[in-house]
User: Fold these one by one.
Assistant:
Number 1:
Amino acid sequence: MSKSQVKLIDENGLRVDGRKSDELREIKLEVGILANADGSAFIRQGKNKIIAAVYGPRELHPKHMALPDRAILRCTYRMASFSVQERKSPAPSRREIELSKIIREALEPAIFLEFFPRSVIDVYIQVLEADGGTRCASVTAASLALADAGIPMRDLVAGCAVGKADGVIIVDLCDIEDKEGEADIPMAMMPQLRRFTLLQMDGNLTKEEFNKAIELGVNAIMKIYNLQKQALREKYLKIREEVLSGNNNRR
Amino acid sequence: MPLLVERKAIVVPGDVLAEGNFKPGDYVVRIGNKLFATQIGLVEVKGNTVFVVPLRGKYIPRVGDLVIGTIVDYSLTSWKVDINSAYLATLPVDLAINKKFDIIKDELTRYFDIGDVIHAKIVAFSRVEMPILSTKDRGLGKLHGGMLYYIHPTRIPRLIGRKGSMINLIKKETGCKIKIGQNGVIWVSCINPEYEMIVVKCIRKIEREAHTEGLTDRIKMLITEEKNKLSQRGATDE
Amino acid sequence: MSYMGFIPTQIEKTKIFQAVASGTRIDGRKLNEFRKIKILTDYIGKAEGSAYVELGDTKVVVGVKISIGPPFPDTPDEGLFVVNAEFVPTASPFFEPGPPDENSIELARVVDRGIRHANVIDTKKLCIIPGEKVYTVFADIYVIDHAGNLFDASTLAVVSALLTTKIPKVEVKEGGSVEILEEKFPLPVNNKVVSLTWAKIGNILVLDPNFEEENIMDARFTVSIDENGYIVSIQKGNPGYLTLDDIRYSIEESLKISKELFKLFPGGHSNDKED
């Protein structure tokens, strides 16, 4: 049963927004959307709207904080004051500070930091609108921004939250499901290598429920991974097609 | 032992390129029995080595490269130069001027001052030293006049072309002086500003279409079309 | 964040001065021409009003949030209007995470004054219980890509967002409590305002400076004008000076060019329409 009397799963097994238990929200990914950043990406997932930007590798000031054998990865996750129902103060909350760290630690295992000693790679995440699962969506977008910045990586990192609502294991929780459900498991991994780099859990689950949730989560992440790859290739494939079809009006 | 993707396919980090006996080249890593791309780019094979020609990524300094940079700071005996890469470069005074530099009597700013743009060669770069530049070779040194344009550094090989074919074509057809930095900075100086616009259009087109075939022909067409437009407007003098 | 990290090249500086002296800009624009402007409203679902504006490559997102609280003691029957600006580090290699610095605070205050003195929002219509409960309108500006002229992009974005803001209706109950209803009504908007920012380069004023021009300009001059042709706010910025001719010229040009800018706003609710 949910925490309040909100019904999260109806008599047809459908969720509050009409989705099936293993269905993802609609996802749109765009790469290279900012003019100044070395790499950038935008993700729309359900109502979530998040921008990720990467600057680097670049010199770190003060110099003594740099590491002699590898780059330092820094990550800042912030939510806009208008991203949530009740206006949030623009100053960073404890949650944003924790998530900045969690997201950094989700991305770091994928990056070849040792290629850029004495430098810093900065990842900035700005949530413009939030509706549950923002840390996972942020990892997905940040990973694209890193690839767009040409930072060498072992694999992309893709994220998705799974959980339990009205006793049913569900995928890609929206805000109500996160708040009212019985469990929330944000996760992210390097899909090709099946390496988990982000895993948290709140709620209560049996061992069987947990295993089922992870399984559904991995499936969801593979779908998101394919969308990431498509988004990275898209721009270049489109130009190739344009050129082949001789439809070359742009100079 | 197959290659799992076509040559010149666009690959992204995490794509599996091959299994088995291949050797990992640039931007490719071997994990277990598989070779993975670590960069977004075009996959290539040379002999047994699989590598990726990158489409993104900041300029990584290489010894021998000619770069175009900006003086941003100086100390007693060297200048600091922004070469649009992860690292600030250093130009020591004895790699810049031919006579002996007198620390007491002379001033660094007599030679290069903040904001000056220089064409220089990278003479040293390793994991311990930040890139070191020299302007001693002929033709190097401060650039005067003209204008700077920026292209993604990964496109520079295409802009130059095989044995300089692309850039020489552009220079010949427009009469402009062009100097190229491997770090993605291009210096262009034209007598005719309309021809400078043609050079800029070529640069933008090459940046956009570097990963496609037949680009040289399309650039030739672009230059011809633009010159025709100009002569129709009666705006050119040969 | 100061621009001390960025050194303009002698070559680009010279080229910009030469171009401007001969009546053009390095991006091909005329001296008094704006870059391409794109305005999207209702961009953020959770905000009561929102807008996304592109001015050339500069990109700004504004979200309007409404809350209910006590009024200021000296204006007991008026609602509140608060503008805040955040320079998001995604926007520029020179922005660092942290609280607003003097530049983002100046931006917020200049945009605020333009809107306040044009009386864009009728704050008297935002009173619920005089002396106790009023609506507060928060307009938060998030700069996400900085390619010059954040002032004009932000003013366009805040006004566009206000024009399309919907406030929840309230019902005052017995005992003075206030219930927020589902029904919404448009924010009462009296007027529109635009700002026009000029950069002094050499002796010449250019409109809507891009990043390169801002980096070498001597002085900056922002003029805010309302729909009725009144000058409602002015700000000179940047070290550097303006002559009386500079001031007269830019105000005159701003008055002319503002007419074109007003056409860009969404067909929101203004005082000459019934909604």
Number 2:
Amino acid sequence: MTSDLDFSTFLAAPDAEVAAIAPATAIVAFGGTRRSAALAGVDRMSPAYMPWLRAGMLNCFDLLFRHGVRHIIAPLAIGKHLAEAGSMRAQLIGALDWGFAGAEALADYRRHEWRVRLIGTESVPELVSTGERLRAETTSSDVPTLWFSVCPDPEASLAAVLHTAAQSGARTRDQAVRALYGEAIPLATLLLGFGKPVFSYDLVPPLLAGRLQCYWMQRPGYALDQPMLRMVLYDYAYTRRTGSGTDRGGRYAGIGAQRAAWETDWVLGVGVPLGGFWFPAPFGGLVEQSVELDEEGGRG
Amino acid sequence: MQLPDLTTFLDSPRADVAALAPQTAIVSVNGTRRSAALAGVTPHTDAYAEWSRQGMLAYMDLLFGHGIRNVFAAAVIAPNMIEFAHYRERFLGWIAHGLAGQHALADYARRGWRVRISGADAIPELQNAAETLVAATPDRWEHTLWWTVTPSDDAPWDAVLSAGARTRAEAIRALYGEDIPLATMFISFGKPIVIYDLIPPLLVDRLQCYWIMRPGYRLDEPMLRHILYDYAYTRKTGSGPSWSERYANLGIQRGAWSTQAVLGVGQRMGPFWYPVPFPQAEDLR
């Protein structure tokens, strides 16, 4: 299939035009917020940390919603965070409640006209009231919805599905989604993660993953910017649509010229250590072919 | 903790590598027609079937030989059932023969593999093949190859939810007839896509995901060992330098952590998708 827009035109297109090809639901599993804070010179223990984090998050989600995503599923706290006990846990719960459902946060959601929900609280009872407050305070319908999730471990996420199915009698995924979340939610078709390519039920609510096109950025925290998002959406909407509208027999006619590309031993997902962190192993690609493709405007 | 030397790891005996391999891996082998075209083999011929069979056996031998005990591999996914809807009977007959025909049974027996088809309840044409494989279970086995077949997008979850189980362990026993260690590795090909046709929903643990760019069954031992090294060591970042050391040196890595490069973004190469280059961390200062 040939794309309707070349890459440069797509990068400069109005948001509304890009929105037409965006997924209805995206899972946005960013990480590395400590790393991001350290790079920005923000002390995680200082009062400035949470406002700084929240501002970055709001910008990031606003960017996604402006580009046509209707539902964002975003893990707020997962196993390693929720494994804390005692006063550390109480401090975390308090920070989550204030940071994502406090007065300032609610004002932000109203200003943006977002509906916000918190899922997974069946496993984190201290946050049930936080979820209820969000439900009561962000009631608009037919507006973008931000689904924050909390999950102490991947097992809890699947346990909630099975428990709900047993309680409600749900026998299909649609029924189970309605029983668990109270409404139908389009399945997610975009996963935008950070760092290592991992798929796990603490990041991805099991029932909501559709045919997930996956991407992992390497900027820690909420550092997604518009060019990066558009690069991802171009790939999602156009570059990956390789199977449709193409004569199958004709696809292989020129494959001999691509032999070197299909014999590479590079593996997407293999990394190298970088100062105690994981970083993707470099991939040189195929310089000559890349140049040709750039000239044709085929790059995504 | 210092990471073990990669070169030593690549040359170490298989038994050493096997000690840190996952018990269960999910694999997705795609691009077999592309691979055949590169090898000069014409798809949908007898020669193609034989060539594919040999490739599959070598591929599974490689995985089992490195310590993986359960391999889940998709034999039929929902898009196949759409693509071959007009030839359903012939397509499924070909699949049944490939998975549980005489040659296949002999291959499995020679290797001592136990083989199962999961999902055949939803595809009646494959039930005989599934039963044939159960009947052919060897007396002693260490490795199980689980072929999964999925007739529709909804089938994997419909099966899970219809089991009426209250826990994952119960559901696994209901669907697979036994306990199975959860999968912690996914090896696929080409575009980074995750769908439940490929990853059985009940078996997903924290899946470390890898996509090779060689089509078909052309994963080789050095590539697999690089993957296993990454899986066992490089990704265990919490066990490296101390907390304070990791963050103290962050400034000199600023370029790497500011890159706009995104894993998963590709370019067109002819009618196919291919990853764009990814910069080296040291070049991003």
